[in-house]
Amino acid sequence: MKLSFFKKKPDTFDYDVSRICKVCNHMFKGRYCNICGEKVLEPSERSFFNFLDSLLNAFTFLDGKFIKSLKLLVTRPGQLSRNIADGQRVPYMKMVSLFFVANFFYFLFPVFDSYNSSLYTQLNSLGNHSVKAKEIVQNKIDREAINLQDFERDYANRSTNLSKLLIILLVFAFTGLLLIINFSKKTFFFDHLLFSLEFYSFQLLLNSVILANLFNGLVKLNSIWGLDLTFLTTDSFFSIATVTTMIYFLLRGQLIFYGLRWYWNIPKTIILLLLMQGTVHVYRIMLFYFTLWGL
Ligand SMILES: [Zn+2]
């Protein structure tokens, strides 16, 4: 038996035979019990190769669903949420899984600290908060006679670990914004949550992983070609690229998922972007205090 990595095996399953469900004893035809959903276990599924196959799939995310979901995420924002909300779930990865895969890749290849602010960013780039944060850190270092380098290292480790968890708060905050901005009696909390998860999956995968690493790679190549591309990895250029892709996502996404007309879509996109920036700011401040709390 061959590994069915990319090829689909011919279906030799006998759909006409009645079977008794091993879980609930219900009699049914086909691959799945229509009461409890248990799947018929075929002899081939008990083979070692099949085990290897599913193991590989679990680790590589190459089972087709991830690629299919990613393609839709980039080419038709909002369509994945729309399909899932309308009951088409099997062809795609679960939205929560997609979000966690995106999150995993982001922390594996971080280029910018968009969701995990370094101590430097906390102390210098966040306005009023930075002034206060500087004071708190200075006091702590003086009081406990800590070595600054040790402190920075411990801070970075703890902040990275915490942000993997706290990023969920951003998803819920954006869900809340969507609930208010796109309120309708026909749309449930679950629907807004789907769209919010899709938004952050897009943001993490396309911007923080694909674009950020692409820019980073191009800058590293510039010594070979003698081109100066360092502007690609400046904060301001990356911010412009990020905001542009977010506008693209929200305009297309709100059209596809919420069915918004353009005269609502444009102002709502602007309001959502501004409020979302606000939630990221609050998130970073929370991350600072949560990180410091345990040090
Ligand atoms: Zn059953």
Query: Poorly predicted ranges (pLDDT <50, ≥5 residues)?
Result: 1-5
Straight-line N-to-C gap? 54 Å
* Quantity of strands, as a count: 2
Order of helix and strand elements from N to C terminus: EEHHHHHHHHHH
* Domains, number: 2
Rg, alpha carbons: 24 Å
- Proportion of strand residues: under 5%
Helices and strands: which structural class? Answer: mainly alpha
What descriptors fit this protein?
295 residues, mainly alpha, 10 helices, 2% strand, globular, disordered N terminus, binds zinc ion
Report on the architecture of this protein.
By secondary structure, the protein is an all-alpha fold. The protein folds into two domains: 18-60, no CATH class; 65-293, no CATH class. It has ten helices and two strands, in the order ββαααααααααα. It has a two-stranded antiparallel ribbon with strand order 1-2. α7 packs antiparallel against α10 (262-293), α8 (189-225) packs antiparallel against α9 (235-258) and α9 crosses α10 (262-293). The longest helix has 37 residues, at 189-225. The chain is globular. The chain starts with 17 loop residues before the first strand and ends with a helix. The structure holds zinc ion. Residues 21, 23-24, 26, 33, 35-36, 38 line the site of zinc ion.
